[in-house]
Amino acid sequence: MSGVQVLTLDAEAEGQRLDRWFRKQFPQVTQGRIEKMCRKGEIRLDGGRVKASDRLAEGQSLRVPPLPDAAAPAIKTAPKISDADAEMIRDTVIYRDASVIALNKPAGLPVQGGSGQAGRHVDGLAAALAFEGAAPKLVHRLDKDTSGVLVLGRTGRAAAALAKAFQSRASRKIYWAAVAGVPSPQAGTIRYGLVKQAGHGPHGAGEKMVALHPDEVAKTPGAKHATTDYTVIEAAAKRVAWVAMVPVTGRTHQLRAHMAELGNPIVGDGKYGTNAQVNDGDGWGAQLGGAISRKLHLHARGLRLPHPDTGATLTFVAPLPDHMAKTWEVFGWETRIPFDPFEDED
Question: Is 143 a known active-site residue?
Fold first, then answer.
């Protein structure tokens, strides 16, 4: 068992999540143990309490409590990236400079690893995006089945600045979705709170977010306020609508849960809608049938945020994935619209 250590963080720690940095430095300590030490205040950053998800900065002082001795060191090697996967992830790059890389993440590719994912996720493929520098760092996430703009920082300082832009809401994210039915009213703000409902599968598989009236959030353990702006851009009769959304807050599955709560689940989202194709009186089913893909129709269309070095405004736009582009073609929806349809309305 080691004693208490007080470490001064170097440039390598800049922008990293505390739990990831901790696991690299002390591989004998589990994620659960890290989170417990944070909750109990045993790990402290510049003398204050810290969360496992907090990001670190060069020069900060980190208190590390007594830890179990490491077992005999096991040599870990990163999974080898195949030539096909390296080419695939490089083909998703839509912008690159010395500090920032922006991708059009494919639907179905996880951002980070999980059970059974091995190294085939954006984080695991980041080494293929090093180009002439180091592997870039994640600063935000998209769901596995959501496509679209994903930004990574190419240096520790850039990653920290980009993460701060997301946390301070200096960024503007525009999502496009096809939803079952047509929301009424056709533009508005959804303010339902969200709370996680445990799944019944192995290791909690199947968990989902449940919407709550805003007045119930304070009374419900684990619930958080959530806000989404939305507007209908086009509609095909009363069967389906093209909706633009801005997540004012960034909760898990927020857009999916909010649209389903309106009775207009995102097409292909059997988790929050149903796999039916009809309105049974309790919200639309999430499938349209016919030529329309059963895949999730949710796309991070655009992102605007300040450059981490210069402060100049960066604007990224990602083309629709093939399955959504085909749906847009079926309904005759023209994608050449302003970057931010909410500003256009005003």
Answer: yes
Q: What is the mean pLDDT of each run of 10 residues along the chain (346 residues)?
A: 83 85 88 92 93 89 86 60 95 97 97 68 94 91 96 94 91 97 95 86 68 95 96 94 96 96 94 80 75 96 97 97 97 94 68
225 φ, ψ (degrees, to nearest 5): -70, 145
Residue with tokens 């990163």: 78
Burial letters 235-269, b for 16+ CB under 10 A, else e: beeeebbbbbbbbbeebebbbbbbbbbbbbbbbbb
- pTM value is 0.79
Kindly give the pairing relationship between strand 228-236 and strand 240-247.
antiparallel
Find how far residue 33's CA is from the centre of its chain.
25
Catalytic residue among 10, 19, 69, 143: 143
Nearest to 93 by CA among 316, 266, 249, 243: 316
Burial class (CB in 10 A: 0-12, 13-18, 19+), 210: middle
